[in-house]
Structure formats: structure tokens, C-alpha cells
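**Protein fold record**
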Amino acid sequence: MRNAFVTRTAGGISVTLAVSAATVALLAAQPLAGKLSRSPSPQPTPSPSASPSALSASSPTPTTTTIVCAGPDGLLRWVPAVAAIFTLLAALGALWNANNSSKAVEASQRAASANLLLSVVKDYAATDFGKAMARLRQWKDGIGAQFAREYADRVRRNDPTAEDLPPKRRQVSSFFNAVRSLSEQGVLERSLVARTLGEPAFKFFVEVVDPLDRAHVEQVMQERYDPMTRDFCQRLLDDLFPPVAP
């Protein structure tokens, strides 16, 4: 509501200034004073045969009054300067309005980013997401160092003991892929989302999810694996959570 009031106020300033400039120009163009000049009316030429008494009896010579309007030349010279001043003030009002509009856009973007971050945190804290992470951790700890290769072997054989692993791996992997994409596009602030989720979240992806993703793509799907999300998470760990020296 405040932003709308600011916009309307700035617009009113521009309109007021423009009207004022037009008014000044109009007033300056109109005659502000008049010169009164009196000129005698033409006198009839007396006839040579007219008698002196007739000439003396004639009426006095009447005069006519003529109003001659003249504009104030001195004031007219100032009209361009005055109009330029009002134009400058109107431009400054428009610039002030644009500056406030830019600030309003930035505030709106920050609010949208904050809402998105809250949504990310909510998804990460969801019960089903926590269960998926716990199942993947259980698989890694139960199998040991070859947990990724064993995952691929059992998935290829349709082993019932591993049938629930692919959807849980995909759920967790998709979450971190989205975080990476939004951070790289500037929608989420990289350092803020990293410190909000915490170091364990990104270590979990690097140590558990990424090896399973690589095994699934390369050994199950027989395709080339792109480690973009792993590299993103590792950079976050190196930049924001460096190892503490003993």
C-alpha cells in the first residue's frame, strides 16, 4: 500500500509541475497591461466661403480613445527559463518515483526469495524426506565401502531387498538438484541456503547420495554421469564449512 501511495504522489508532482509550467507560459503570453493613446479625430476642412461666425459656432474637435495592447517584452524573455526550471523539477520527480519503484521491486524479490527458502526448509524437514535419507544411510552403513556397486547390482537383478532404494534416492537427489539450480540462477542465496540447511545435509549428499546416483546412471542406465550437484555441494563445504585444524 505504501508503494502505491508513493507512486501516486510522484505522479501527482509531475502533473502539478507540468500544469504550473503551462499556466506560467499562458499568463506570460497574455497582455498584462495596455497603453492608452488619444488621437484626434479628423477635422473637417472649412470651406473658403464659410463665414467667421459659422466657424466659431462649430463644435469643439472631438477626440477618440484607442486601447493599444502590448505584451510585457521583459517578462516574455523569462518564459523559456521558467519553463525549463519546471521541466527539470518534473524530471526530478519522475526520477524519484523510478528510484522508489526500483526499491519496491528489490523488496519484493527479497520477500519471494525468503518464501522460497522457507519452502525448501519445509521440504527438507518433511517426515517422508527424513525417512528417505535414513533408509539411504542405513543401506550405506549396512553394506560398507561397496554400497554403491551393490546397489546397482541388486537394482539390475530386481532384488526385493533394494526395490525401495531407487525412489528414495531419486527423492533426495531431486531436492539437492533443485537447490543447486535455484542457487546458480540467483533465486536462492548460496551461502544463506547452505547455512540454513547446515553442513550435514551437504555432506550427506556427497558421501551417500552422489555415489548412488553415479552407480545408477553409469551401471543401471548405462549413461554418462554429470557431477554438477556433487561439485556444487563440495564447493559449499570447502568455502563455508572448512575443516577445523586440530
